């Protein structure tokens, strides 16, 4: 994200690839696990 702030990446050209990179991290599964932990307290 810092690269967008300092201008190394262009928000118009590079944002979709940046967001798609989260798919490789399986972010949706992480959020699911986190949400389950919060709601089970």
UniProtKB/TrEMBL annotation:
Q: Which domain of life is it from?
A: Bacteria
Name listed for the protein in its UniProt record: Uncharacterized protein
